[in-house]
Amino acid sequence: MNRDEAKYILRSFHLNGLDTDDPQFQAALEMIQHDPELREWFSTEQVLDQKLSDAFRAFPVPPALQRELLAARNVVPPAAWWRQPVWMSVAASLALLGVLSVLLSRTAHKRPFAEFHSYIIETAAQLDHLDIRTGDLAQVREWLRAHRAPDDFAIPGRLHGKSSVGCRVFSWNEQNISLLCFDIENNKVAHLFVMDRSVLTNWPEGGVPQIETAGNGIATAAWSDSKRIYIMALEQGERDLRRLLL
Amino acid sequence: MDVDELDYERVVTLHHESLYRFAYSLAGNPDDAAELTQEAYVRLLNKSLQLRDQRRVKAWLCTTLYRIFLGWKRRENRFPHIEVFSAENELPPLTPEIADQLDGAMAMDAALDLEEHFRVPLVLHYLQCLSYQEIAEVLKVPIGTVMSRLSRGKDLLRQRLMVKKREADLRRADPISFEKPMCPRQGAYESR
Q1: How many contacts does A have with B, using Cβ atoms within 8 A?
Q2: Is ipTM strictly over 0.85?
Q3: Under 8 Å between Cβ of A165 and A181
Q4: pTM of the entire structure?
Q5: Which of A56, A185, A204, B26 is the most buried (most CB within 10 A)?
Q6: Which residue of A has its CA nearest to B136?
């Protein structure tokens, strides 16, 4: 993590220290201990933020509001019969059946791989940040698992040993996609997108990557295993993809 | 929520001010802000959950209020976006000394000039309602997006506050001419 990255993260730090246990903030806060310039910047930021917070929290509230809210309790009708626990259970069961039937019907309407591929090319061209930055792949997997994104992916051959930069979760067609970024040679970063293959049709069969370059210069390599679809994207990087994956 | 009287009273006492301020930052006027706050609390009364974790109640109220606001916005063109024109880049940066002169109304006024996607996480952050992870849950966006919006939003808010401060200073220095309606074609009239 460099100074700019630490500043970027620390600008979201909760004024009450609510986020102190978050690993991202811990790393940035640790950096403050060894970087006097960063420490001074953060100190000024905290002073400014506290003053702004005080200003927002001093915005006037109508004096009668609390009384009106408390009075509302007497005019809101008591819970109806259908809100009783037994009927709530019945309703929940019916709702669950409904959800299941929708889910089952949706499996019949899978999206073609080409659509997903286009989405990845567009996304890779606009990447601006990661949700978490870490070189520890175990931490990446743990974070992805906690955010219900694919975490049981296989790292392809020559990316083993490359340090990860971080990860991010995207949502497409109501499915979570994991993005992992790896440092490769020449200051380039390879973006590996991983998604459950069961929601796609016409995906590239097998583990041999299919490599191509899109009109916007984003080169992609796509392959699959028994559960996942993988797309690795690299700007102007067809040669790098061949070297890493073939 | 099975809200007994004591719990409800406590939840109102603890959170109604933050909720109202958040509502105001969305609606931009006191009537809609009060109505949004009322509606969120009415929904709380109608829910059948236990109020055990006070922090979850706060996040639940913020999320509910925001959803109500989005619903209003979809149904009616109730909150039109106001374009902002200013020479903000020419102003000096906000310093702690200048920030000392700010009040709640000026801060809220400046926040209301920002685009909603910057304003909502920023106000929740400054009201110290929620952590950045909880803000991500309210907005249904990844935490990285909350971070980038907070970072950019803070810059934009500080710029807007400097504009507001300059306007306030001008108003104090010359209240009469400041209140004159601005006419972009004034020069043309004068030359006739």
Answers
A1: 136
A2: no
A3: yes
A4: 0.56
A5: A56
A6: A131
